[in-house]
Write a structure and sequence with these properties.
Number of strands: 19
Low-confidence stretches: 80-123
Strand content: 15-25%
Mean pLDDT: 83
Radius of gyration: 25 Å
Largest sheet: 7 strands, mixed
Shape: globular
Structural class: alpha+beta
Distance between the termini: 58 Å
Amino acid sequence: MEMKLPPLGEGADSGTVVNVFVKPGDTITQGQPVLELENEKAVVNIPASAAGTVTAVFVSAGDKLKVGQRMLALAGAAPAETPAPASAPAPRRSRERLIQTPSPEQVPVPDTDADEPASPPKAGVPPMAAPSIRKLARDLGIDLSRVAGSARGGRILLEDVREYIQKLQRLATQPRAGGGAPPPPPAERIDFAKWGPVSRKPLSPLREVIARRMSESWSTIPRVTQFDEADITAVMALRKKYAPAYEQQKARLTLTSFALKVVVDTLKKHPLFNASLDEGAHEIVLKEYYHIGIAVDTEAGLIVPVIRDADKKSLLELSRELEDLAGKARQRKLTAEQLQGGTFTISNQGGIGGGHFTPIVNKPEVAILGLGRGAMKATVREQRIEPRLWLPLGLSYDHRAIDGGAAARFTVDLVQAFENFPEEAVKL
């Protein structure tokens, strides 16, 4: 039997092979890792779907691999249900809603998330369809796992394929966001070598993901950035006082740890900033949980792991988890689950340098907070000039969901939360 790449999770259909762990002649067991795949922002192990002896390996390090593409061949193996993929797909929106209210930002091509069925098939189980339907799908380049079957048991009929194609045609002719502006022309190829020596390297999968998502955010979200500064002299004094105690508990007490607490407390007062815009339903989704994304600078690029239920964790727990996730991000050992579900993002560049900056909203969130490097400034307090440490703040927000007045009030409360951080929250 041939072993093929199983589904990888939400919105993912390909990756780059990092390592191949088996070779022809090896005997493997079901669930044993056979290769390492770099996909989206994580490097994951792909397990064997059956036991047997490897007779052929069809991929090597550096190859791009798509879901359903063969990886290796086994002898003496009986087909078995593939183990759960590297990350379980998130629940899909209903097929009816997708047809009635497609999002303007959805790209009208077969591999977009908008065209996935409401109930995707089990990992490793091919969609139910007649051989003639499968041949037709292959000829047209259609992934049948994205077609919702209307017959008994989800079996796909010719009418289902026809309806799927018609839906793609409707999406292709639908006006895009921004007044129906035409798509940008293809990028111009420039021969930079004619002016001097150059070297080239391919974009990594992570860099391609960052480029795609940043372009989508820039072109679809009308953003505004609200700037301010917070006096963190008292906060840094608390950090200096309690840092040794935290180190004894194997945790690093950092400014980002304080920022997590401050942001959560402010989000509770301003729930609109802990929301998402459901463009298809024309609704604002107010979330009652606080999963805070932390932008981590790595050699491979920017990665944003998510600290879940930050409102329910102590400063010690937040400090430990923050350090753990940052370490895993730099080692590319994060799971897909640890990169999803964020409600608000913090980007702290203070350790690198610089002051105010305009962070880009991490869609589908509606706001992001950028922290710059603190600077000591002469400050007038009670008729006296004294040195105080000031933290640059930049709050970028989606103007479709949030107005300037709301952003100003959020920033005022954020500054007050930094400047009045309670010592009780730091004590162990």
